[in-house]
Amino acid sequence: MESKYGGYMGRFLDIDLSEGKISDYEVSDRIRELYLGGKGLAARILYDELKSGIDPLGPDNVLIVNTGPLVNSGAPTSNRFNVSTKSPLTGAILSSNSGGSFGLYLKRAGFDGIIIRGKAEKPTWIHVEEGKAELRDASHLWGLDTEKTQKELPAKAGKMVIGPAGENGVLYAGIFSQERTAGRGGAGAVMGSKNLKAVTAYGKGKAPVANEEKFQEDVKKWIKILKSHPTTGETLPAYGTTVFVNRCNATNTLPTHNFSLGSFEQAEKTSGEALADTLLVKNYGCVGCVVKCGRRVLVNGKEVKGPEYETAGLFGANLENSDLEKICEWNYLSDLMGMDTISVGNTIGFAMELNEKGLWKTGLSFGNTEGIGELIEDIAYKRGIGAELALGTRRLAAKYGGWEFAMNAKGMELAAYEPRGAFGHALGYAVGNRGGCHLAGGYMIYLEANGPLTMNPLTDRAKPQFTTFLQTMLDAISNTGSCGFTLFPLIPAIAFKLNPHGTIYRIISKSMEFLGPAVELLVRFPNLLKLVPPMSLMQHPKVLTDLTGMKVTLRTFIEIGERTFLVERMFNLREGFSTKDDTLPERSTKELQGGNPKAIVPLKKMLPRYYRTRGLDARGFPFEKTLKRLEMDIR
What we know:
By secondary structure, the protein is an alpha+beta fold. Helix content is 39%, strand content 12%.
């Protein structure tokens, strides 16, 4: 269905691989108004199209690949694409976001998204070009790694591929575009289960712009804000996300020895600063990015993508490994195989502790890097113990025990932040719709441990309200096609100049603990946000208004994020999830971190306030008035 709004190509492909049928899927402008695009729109389609209880790796599952209105518009850091499906790792809804060039080229080819159904009889490749799509034989690509696969595909096209891990059904296999990945939750395994090796797109189209002059003016302002901010203009370009290694280590939030500790004596050797001094060749960014947080490093003499913080933390301190070259090598190998490095590092760490405790004798031990590269390949090909590691921590715990230290939420392995060091971030892990994800959880760690101005990480005060707010903001931003790092400028630059040991810093930090009621009021009445000075730095509503012609205000933007979170939660509720699944392993909620009596996550105390702020009842279901306020016509 064509759109009256700018920023959209107005077409959504619907491809049934079982039937070999290609058609259009109708998306109304009303749905665009409510969800914009990205994970929100995809979640609504999944809710409408999927029956509960289907097998995530069966032909009835649906894989949705889509963009947001800012993609291919010229807006900075805004060429990301979203992949949504039912996760084979968790059984919950999955949305996974990626950079790379595919989203850009999909829109240039004339489409805002693709719905992929069924299962092809043989290895297949979907090619989309200039408003048309066709199915091609991919038998010659089957078995190739992600790098070789992309080299075999048309040079000018945007590419989205899987590696051996996706073909073999590794439950945390990802989907790769260039060197970027939609990594979490097993979307690559869903793609592999459909015998779909690749999707390529090419075209020269461009979506209309409602107000070109104002759009260009506001884009320039946005670029200036991003380039002048200390995080997006200085720290991330200089050190990438691995700059957080030292910061998290200093705040007891760096997972060490399978999350049993929050700091590692040799963490500095695996930090962004160490990377910059040793292996770094240059930094780079996704298409249209002004931040350029990506790293290029040397692995065995070859220039490849360097590790993100999550990879450095989980391949480093979590395994008690201080060898930065090994981290870079394992990161590259995991990418070639097509796997999520977060789940790989977390699962290997769990297996090491199982071995240490005599629950599963694997020979794996903390601090021993020998054979880990071969083990990563074994996981991808499901060889030996790799076949069991490919199932993730939840299924390993079901077989061998160790539930209390199987570090996952809803079956998804936790990202590289130790929950007992940051209670708000821990809450986000527990209530995140896709499981133990730092982004779906709201990334509270930035307000608790690794940001320029932090509140007491070991208090429950105000954490439910701040978590709700940040989750909502990140969901809304994701729907636009923009990078989540565009949220960082909400922390004013002056905060970076405060002395963390000074009186002003301590007063502001302490006062944040008492802002819970105020933040809850802002969540319920988003019009009040215009009274908060830092919110003036939020460029998304202005640029979206210029581009689309919709009247996007801070209030409507926040509501888009709320709808997105709630439709994903309602999908999970329909699948049988409930408040009992909003939980964490006992290591986080019952075991002291380093003997600190304060370092136990008070999850049960935070959850009721979180549900109240979210507009949920005691069972975790949205109140009728919540759905009515957000104009959500689903039950």
